[in-house]
Amino acid sequence: MSFAKPLAVITSSALALTFALAAPVVAQQMPQGAPSAEQQVAQLDEMVNLNDSQEQTLVSLLTQGQERLQSLQSEAQGVQMQLQSQIGPDFDEASIRRDAERLGQLTGDMTAESALMQARIQSTLTAEQRDELQRLARQQQERMQQQMPSQ
To answer: Which stretches within the chain are classed as H helix?
Structure first.
């Protein structure tokens, strides 16, 4: 299992705009892979008209958060590789459990980092901007539900 996909999801969807449930709106408009902080902020700016101070703050928040997440991801991949190398007939249960616990901690840390970044991003936006993102998210959800085949 690779953590590259979850990190891309965290940094693009979750970090960019999930903070207002607007990830589906942005996901359709973003290029594949994890966009840069500047690209994410530009996308958000198109949606809610950020001021220059907000743009600078958000780029900084996203850049720092992505760096922390990448560091955690790298460590998690190392622990995962270590866990895989321990699988065999002469396994050490205590070591496997210790590494599995560390992997769980790292996954939790990545989730917490994402949530904290989302909260920080929300605090940077005005109430009107948050409302607009929620409105866009509702519109996107309605469009997605209309596209789903009825059962």
So the answer is: 4-9, 15-16, 23-27, 37-48, 52-85, 93-124, 127-147
Q: Are 69 and 11 in contact (CB under 8 A)?
A: yes
Contacts of 44 (CB under 8 A, 6+ apart): 16, 17, 26, 50, 58
CB proximity list for 12: less than 8 A, separation 6 or greater: 26, 27, 30, 33, 34, 35, 40
Contact 89, 109 (CB under 8 A): no
CA distance 78 to 70: 12
Rounded to whole angstroms, the Cα distance separating 66 from 114 reads 9
Q: What is the Cα–Cα distance from 136 to 24, expressed in whole angstroms? A: 9
pTM: 0.68
Q: Coil, strand, or helix at residue 26?
A: helix
Task: Tell me the pLDDT tens digit for each residue of 111-126.
Answer: 999 999 989 999 999 9
